[in-house]
Amino acid sequence: GVRGLGVQGNIADVNAVEAMVAQGIAAFGRLDILAANAGIIRWEHFLDITPQNARLILDVNLKGTIYCCRAAARQMIGQGEGGRIIITSSVQASMHFPVTPVYGATKHAMFPFVGTLALELAPHHITVNHIGPGWVRSALNDQAPDQQTADGIEGNRQAVPLKRDGLPEEMGRAVAYYAGPDGAYVTGTYLRVDGGLGIGKYSL
Question: Which pTM value belongs to this model?
């Protein structure tokens, strides 16, 4: 009973983003919620970072998020009825990990980005927030160096105070909170959905 539309596009291309939003508007007539969830990671030590991978991560995680948020905000403002913008950042927005310095930088950048958008868009009744997934059972993490052995996978789980991977649907429920009526008075915030990973190094 729910209508859907799949649109293929490269969010690092501003024209593709504008076209993607236009197709959605043509199909449904309006845009009320943006969940900016696309992301990419490459595991490289700082001294081994390739320009190609650095550019790719910056294009998708930073520029792509900016383009999507701008296109969505313009449409919401034009409609005049407010809206919700929810960005998937990462637990790396507030923690430091080796081997992913560029990825971590793009996620940490979401703090000033989300805060500024929340302030600028509040007069239009548009809320802006971001969630911080921790270690999630997702294809994004399949190529992580410590995911290549059973011991490495178990080690990641043991680093999480709740001793398990996060599930994609648990991330989705956090997005649904911000998008639903319970999140109507919440803007400019960051919600870690990480099983305690963000505080794990301090736990006993």
Answer: 0.93
